[in-house]
Every structure is written in structure tokens, then in C-alpha cells.
Design goal:
alpha+beta; Jelly Rolls; four-stranded antiparallel sheet; 9 helices; metal-binding; iron; metal ion binding; Oxoglu/Fe-dep_dioxygenase_dom; Fe2OG dioxygenase domain-containing protein
């Protein structure tokens, strides 16, 4: 395909100059994948071509054999019996799937719809307006581009993204685009409240004090990534998002009705069906690290789709590159002589830096931190 190749003996990556030129030309348009679609292309550029996945045994959309648990949070604050049942289901889901969906989570459906509308409005603005804020500077309060790992990933994904940190220091309103400013800030408040509830339930699922994960800083940061996946003329050749696990403690995802999100379970790709009003929750790498592999950060991907645009908003509980120098390793209460620590201590910033440098290359960053 004329893409980057690996010299197995030297363990180095050979750079294909022609490919680098194609990547730069795409980046320089500042119009993203949506710009290609707006031009009316019928063949996708080769830099978006992905090799076939090794797990070809993917489930079909009608597969009901494996269904990600949908957990109702309606009475977790009032009814101790319901709370214990929810904790048991969250424990099981976190140890096996690494994924579950939640309903009655406390975020109004109107806020979910308003957020999807706001994201769509941003991407469907005039291209010249968006070009003004297109950037790869990760330290900006609002970052909009296509493929954060443009120059490091083996193949590009069919999506555009904007990101902003909503906590611990929410952006100033004037730093956000007016078309989605209010709903982003409002949703950040809701998401943080839900995250704290989830960390309490996860703490109890580990047999720890309800505040344990919150007190060690798992909920101190919140990063939102708002994705726009345009309809793709050749979805079989590319991916919406490459197979990866998340570099967070926890991720809460809002997806629209289109679908395409899949989780890898027993070497089979399982569809996570969109549930009206539900949010998808998944364990991140950092939570797998501090629980010493008790909770699983599972690989997942998003298919490219003939239908579109697909809108999704992922909220990552992590302060990322803006985190404190606090060290994280397996929680002392969860290790023993029979279950020694499996990971070295690291900071969130070090983990995230390593994750981002590698890009979405289809392998887990956790391996780098194993003892």
C-alpha cells in the first residue's frame, strides 16, 4: 500500500516520503475528513486504507448471543438493596467485558440531544470558520483537527475531532466556539457528577471505601472528545477508529443512533447497540493498572459507515497531559503475596504521553508499564 513499513531486525520504522507528503497535504487543507466528503470523493485516499483485522470473526448487527450489560442506576442513591445489585453487575461487567451501558444516569435526555446537535453544528459550519481554529497544539483550551496521531499511526481514521478539558479547570466561555459553548459546559457538569457516582460504585465493587477512587484523584480531570464520522464511500477499506483501549481511568461515551462501536470479547467483535438515552461506560488503562488487572480495559473500535454523519462524545476521566505529578501503581489493598503488583508506578502524564506518541497502532500501551 506504500505505507510505513517496519524493519523487524532493527526494530525501526522506515518513513515513506511519498506518504508523508500525502499526510501533510491532507493536514494542510485544515478541512478534515468532512472536507474530502464535501468535495464529493468516491475513492478514499490510500492513507486511510487499513489492513484487514486479524479478528475477522466479527459479530453481525443482529447478534444477540453477547449483549453488553445495560445497568439501571435509578435507585442507587436511595435503596441499599438496589445499590448492591448494581454494584454486583458493575463488578461482573468490569471484570469480564470492561464495558457496560447505564440508563437513568441523571443526565436529562434533552442535554444528550442538545450536545449531539451542538457537535453537529460545529462541524457543519462553513469550512473557512473552522480553518481558523484547526490546530495540533494540545495545550490549547480547544483543539480541533483530524487524527491526533496523523504522522504516527499506520493508517488514518475516517473522522474529525475536537477536544477540550472540562475539569479541573473548565475553559473560559470565550475559548469555546459559540455554536456549542453552552451545552459543552453544561454537559461537563453533568458528566462529572455521573463520574463521581460511577467511581463510588466501582470502589465498592473492589471492596474499597466508596470514596477511594475519587480520593486518589481518578475523577480530578475530564477531557471531552467530540467526534464527527462522515459517511464513507468505501467503508470496507478503512476504520472510523482503529482498535485501541483508552488512556483514562474511565470513559463515558454518548453515541448516536447510527452504531458502529464494537468491543473485542473472546477474540470476537461484538456490537454495542445504541440504546436510547443510554451512555456507554468503559474501564480505561489507568483503572486496569491500579486494580492490578482486576478490572479490564478492553480493546474497541468504530467501523466506518455508509450512513453518516455519526456523532459521538467521549468523556475521559483523566487530567491527561495537564495532570499532577502524583504516582499511580496497583492499589495496596488489592495486592498481596499471592497477587503481587503487575505494573510499575507511573504518572498520568507519563502514561498519556507514551500513549499519544505511539498513536492508535492497534496495540495496548499497558504492556510498556508491566513489571
Amino acid at each position: 500500500m506504500g505505507v510505513t513499513t517496519t524493519d523487524e531486525i532493527a526494530g525501526t520504522v522506515k518513513v515513506d516520503p511519498e506518504r508523508v507528503c500525502e499526510l501533510k497535504a491532507f493536514d494542510d487543507t485544515k478541512a478534515g475528513v468532512k472536507g474530502l466528503v464535501d468535495e464529493g470523493i468516491t475513492k478514499i485516499p490510500r492513507v486511510f486504507h487499513h489492513p484487514p483485522d486479524e479478528y475477522v470473526k466479527a459479530s453481525t448487527l443482529g447478534n444477540t448471543e453477547h449483549v453488553i450489560p445495560v445497568i439501571d442506576l435509578a435507585n442507587v442513591g436511595e435503596d441499599p438493596c438496589s445499590r448492591q445489585q448494581v454494584i454486583a453487575r458493575i463488578r461482573e461487567a468490569s471484570e469480564t467485558w470492561g464495558f457496560f451501558q447505564v440508563v437513568n444516569h441523571g443526565i436529562p435526555v434533552t442535554a444528550l440531544e442538545d450536545l449531539k446537535d451542538g457537535v453537529r453544528r460545529f462541524y457543519e459550519q462553513d469550512t473557512e470558520v473552522k480553518k481558523e481554529i484547526y490546530s495540533r497544539d494540545q495545550m490549547r483550551p480547544f483543539v480541533y483537527n483530524s487524527n491526533f496521531d496523523l504522522y504516527s499511526s499506520p493508517a488514518l481514521n475516517w473522522r474529525d475531532t475536537f477536544m477540550c478539558y472540562l475539569a479541573p479547570n473548565p475553559p473560559k466561555p470565550e475559548d469555546l466556539p459559540s455554536v456549542c459553548r453552552d451545552i459543552l459546559l453544561e454537559y461537563g457538569t453533568y458528566a462529572m457528577k455521573l463520574g463521581i457516582t460511577l467511581f463510588e460504585l466501582l470502589s465498592e465493587a473492589l471492596g474499597l471505601h466508596p470514596n477511594h477512587l475519587k480520593d486518589i484523584g481518578c475523577a480530578e480531570g475530564l477531557l471531552s472528545l467530540c467526534h464527527y464520522y462522515p459517511a464513507c464511500p468505501e467503508p470496507e477499506l478503512t476504520m472510523g477508529t482503529t482498535k485501541h483501549s483508552d488512556d483514562s481511568f474511565l470513559t463515558v461515551l454518548l453515541q448516536d443512533h447510527i452504531g458502529g462501536l464494537q468491543v473485542l470479547y473472546q477474540n470476537t467483535w461484538i456490537d454495542i447497540q445504541p440504546e436510547p438515552g443510554a451512555l456507554v461506560v468503559n474501564i480505561g488503562d489507568l483503572l486496569q493498572l491500579i486494580t492490578n488487572d482486576r478490572f479490564k480495559s478492553v480493546e474497541h473500535r468504530v467501523l466506518a459507515n455508509l450512513e453518516g454523519p455519526r456523532i459521538s462524545v467521549a468523556c475521559f476521566f483523566s487530567a491527561g497531559i495537564k495532570s499532577t505529578p502524583k504516582l499511580y501503581g496497583p492499589i495496596k489493598d488489592l495486592v498481596s503475596e499471592d497477587n503481587p503488583p503487575k505494573y510499575r508506578e507511573t504518572t498520568v502524564a507519563e502514561y498519556v504521553h507514551y500513549f499519544c506518541e505511539r498513536g492508535l497502532d492497534g496495540t495496548s500501551a499497558l504492556q510498556h508499564f508491566r513489571i
